[in-house]
Amino acid sequence: MRLHLCNCFNATFAAADSPSGASAPQSGGPVERSVFEDLAIGSRICAAENVFDAFGHLSVRHPTAPDRFFMTKSMAPALATADDIVELDLESNPCAGETRPLFLERFIHSEIYKARPDVQSIVHSHSPSVVPFGVVGNPMRAIFHTAAFIAAGVPTFDISQEFGETDMLVGNRDKARALTRCLGDKSVCLMRAHGSVVVAPSLQLAVARAVYTEVNAKLQLQATMLGGPIAALSESEGRIADAVNIAGVGRPWELWKRQALRRMREEAELDD
Ligand code: MN
């Protein structure tokens, strides 16, 4: 069976880079506390909505320094707080003073931010209903308007095409660069036998897209079981519907945020 793979594995690589032991990068400057709070809450939302389990990460670009981004230290995202946020440069080096453990796959984020100035936030997950679509030849399609961004197309990154048999993790710059090429200008890229990456122009939208990618995967499986052709959104319908979703992202975000804050309060009471 032919996998629906992007034709990106023949591209040439830039020479392997390394920061050569230079001193740690400086911070891009202070940000509002709400940036860290939203990052922690977004991580908890992804966990609550079945996008993350103990693994997975959400990041956001520094609002005033585009060559810096934030994510939590290496930890289960459902436990994230605003005190767990680390700042990294676009080589995935932590800024000066940071000593906490970092995610092995943080390079996914740095390479996408480097290549895609339009991207302000990224979710990498092993969102379970999405994983099967990365191992079959049946491409993911936009089954309903809330997942309209999927209509633009969903490539699949097969790490073995360039790197042979590996642990499947995108744990260095070269692998992340190959994934970024496969993502291209799209909003979602599947990762064979691993998970997916979802990008967006805001943190709220990245979280919503990650949630609706998971929901869409379930709905596509159900539609497939009904049999017959699938009348999914066309590419143009996807563009039109996505504009509405982008404008309306505040609604799901406010709901999910309130639910996450309530759970945090309940946890705090139980801890007392
Ligand atoms: Mn992963």
List keywords for this structure.
binds manganese (II) ion; single chain; alpha+beta; 272 residues; seven-stranded mixed β-sheet; L-fuculose-1-phosphate Aldolase
Task: Report what the structure shows.
The model is unreliable at 6-20 (pLDDT under 50). With 272 residues, this protein is α+β, with helices and mostly antiparallel strands. It has helices at residues 33-48, 107-115, 160-163, 173-183, 203-226, 235-247, 250-271, and strands at 57-61, 68-72, 85-89, 121-125, 156-157, 188-191, 195-200. It has a seven-stranded mixed β-sheet, with helices on both faces. The termini are far apart. Helix content is 36%, strand content 12%. It contains seven helices and seven strands, in the order H-E-E-E-H-E-E-H-H-E-E-H-H-H. Strand 6 and strand 7 form a beta hairpin. Manganese (II) ion binds next to loops.
Short description:
The chain has 272 residues and is an alpha+beta fold.
